[in-house]
Write a structure and sequence with these properties.
The structure is a homodimer. With about 350 residues, the first copy, chain A, is α/β, with parallel strands linked by helices. A 5-stranded parallel sheet of chain A has the order 2-1-3-4-5, sandwiched between helices. In chain A, strands 7-6-8-9 form a 4-stranded parallel sheet, sandwiched between helices. A two-stranded antiparallel ribbon of chain A has the order 10-11. In chain A, α5 links the parallel β1 and β2. The N and C termini of chain A lie far apart (about 65 Å). At the A-B interface, α4, α5, β2, α6 and α11 of A face α4, α5, β2, α6 and α11 of B. The structure holds a DNA duplex (16 and 16 nucleotides). Chains A, B: This is LacI family transcriptional regulator.
DNA sequence: TTGTAGGCGTTATCAC
DNA sequence: GTGATAACGCCTACAA
């Protein structure tokens, strides 16, 4: 039990009524300068702090926004969270983070937690919650989504074009002379994963190349699966000169798998990721990847949400995925003399 | 404005009083089975959800705990946050994360935010907030700290022995035959940093080796500073055969710096980090480092805090730092033939 | 401009 | 067991 100073005591100390004290604290309304000072003085003296719970009940606004993320320690969403935090800075709203771990039931209970608080608005990061549920929630409070597309709420969904991003990777590799590009995909249930795979296929098709099932393998977006994927690909015996992973984490795993086999990147094998995690600048070699403006999207989501809370209209925003060419990709054949076979 | 179903409506629908409805919802007290069922039915029918704000006001407990972290996207604290989340699971308490970014004023306002909500308890992760302030807060509500030591509150501070951890690194390197061990430290204002430096010095002393200023350089715990540190060390012209970084992030940077110079790890140079970030298993080569049980500490912090909330006594807990020997360290001289000079 | 009083949704304290 | 009713701390008409 936290027996705090209440507005009542402040008012008494300042010799004014609670309402006057309230007005001073809340700011907006005009109050006589002398009384205002008296109140502020009392606040300082007593160390008063507005009880946001009480204010929330009285005003009907909790001054908190719910953020449904999938993993609080995810390097990918971490950047988005940072952007959201930044965007909320100084707005008076506090973020309330809950994690869904990509499991529908867990997301559902996390959403219930947020609705039960209740929060004034929500930002949804990815996840598998059905569109219907989100639309339902959006009817009751401002809702923004990052990294997913909700049919009917397109304007409040912040996404990058994963198809295009994946295309640009393939094009880059093709330009470097690679024709046999292995693909380590994400879980097919995941929208980003399917979009990126689609980009890979489309770019190959555009280049007049056949899609080869034998070059594709499915991972789960985690490092270990990238490692295993490389092992599997090598065991298959099909030849390839570049690997494209559907995200950076799997690319890290793939990198290690190649390292274990003594296959050099990029001399023997080009490697590309997707996401441009903070770490990708510092891998050895730095990873060619696709940068999504995750921080910016978090920031934009927060700002758009604040607009909605202020009943201002928000319009659709587009974010571009940008290919970051670093040192994990190289022209095919340039170092052919030192090249080892990638066949096992 | 979220016009929600209220207890009142539920009670009316169930044909009972609000008090009875409240009792059913809250659980504890006994209620006639038939009325209980009627209430639960009404809850389902109307889709009632307890308003935690109102409950908080009435009960004096907000059922939320404040977590002061430094960076919501920090890979190090991320693990702790995950542990805390897990530890709170099913307890009814929700975590409220705020970030201080290692800046005293920002931490102070973050703490104010938490106190103003108000939260029922707090967990402090690192930071530079003065001990006095934390002690002051701890008098009003249960408080646990991870990664810092508050004089007078030792029992509620979860830490690992950084000195010992750093010692074990040096010992490992000495055993491998390294005598010239460069050290990339963290900011001196940082307690973990000074402890680790102390461990480095102490281990050298114990081994009868002189401490060489020229082998030590100060970074800021970020990757880029590790890269710069390697550059500086090489420019100094002093020779060394191993690098010990005060955290993994700087070790990543150092790794890249060495890579750029064509210095191989571990053939030409052994490299050790500290923290065992999730990524360190997947760098090339996997990094020898010191594992701190961060997830476990987060979990333990949450559990201890729940105990305190239940007015149960908590006792001091000790966590051990464990040297994880991986592939970035090797015996000196073993690959001497292929060795390049590390002098520039 | 200021104060009084009612209400926000729930829990807690009483009687019954 | 159950049901009125008074808090909880604040905001906000409404009246002065």
């Amino acid at each position: 039990m936290t027996t705090n100073i209440t507005l009542d005591e402040v008012a008494r100390a300042a010799g004014v009524s609670v309402s006057t004290a309230s007005r001073v604290i809340s700011g907006a309304v005009r109050v006589a300068p002398n009384k205002r000072e008296a109140v502020l003085q009392a606040v300082r003296d007593l160390g008063y702090r507005t009880n946001l719970i009480a204010r929330g009940l009285a005003s009907g606004r909790s001054m908190s926004v719910g953020i449904l993320t999938q993993d609080i320690s995810s390097p990918y969403y971490g950047e988005v969270l940072r952007g959201i935090e930044e965007g909320l800075e100084g707005s008076g709203y506090s973020p309330l983070f809950v994690s869904g771990h990509w499991r529908v039931e867990e997301e559902a209970s996390a959403l219930d937690t947020l609705l039960g608080r209740p929060v004034d608005a929500m930002i949804i990061l990815g996840g598998h919650t059905p569109d219907e549920r989100l639309i339902q929630i959006a009817e009751r409070l401002p809702l923004m989504a990052v990294g997913r597309n909700i049919r009917g709420l397109e304007d409040t969904c912040l996404r990058v074009d994963n198809v295009q991003g994946a295309c640009s990777v393939v094009q880059h590799l093709l330009e470097l002379g690679h024709h046999r590009i292995a693909y380590i995909g994400g879980p097919t249930s995941h929208r980003d994963a399917s979009d990126r795979l689609q980009g890979y296929r489309q770019a190959l098709e555009d280049a007049g190349l056949d899609f080869d099932e034998g070059l594709v393998i499915e991972g789960d977006f985690m490092e270990a699966s990238g490692l295993l994927a490389v092992e599997s690909l090598l065991l298959r015996g099909t030849s390839f000169t570049a690997i494209m992973a559907a995200n950076d984490q799997m690319a890290y795993g793939a990198r290690l798998g190649l390292f274990r086999r003594g296959i050099r990147v990029p001399e023997d094998m080009s490697l590309v990721g997707f996401d441009d995690l903070p770490n990708s600048t510092f891998t050895t070699p730095p990873l060619t990847t696709v940068r999504q403006p995750t921080y910016e999207m978090g920031l934009a989501a927060a700002q758009a949400m604040l607009k909605m809370l202020a009943r201002e209209p928000v319009e659709a925003q587009h974010f571009h995925a940008e290919l970051k060419i670093r040192e994990s990709t190289a022209r095919l054949g340039r170092t052919m003399r030192g090249r080892r076979s990638v066949r096992v």
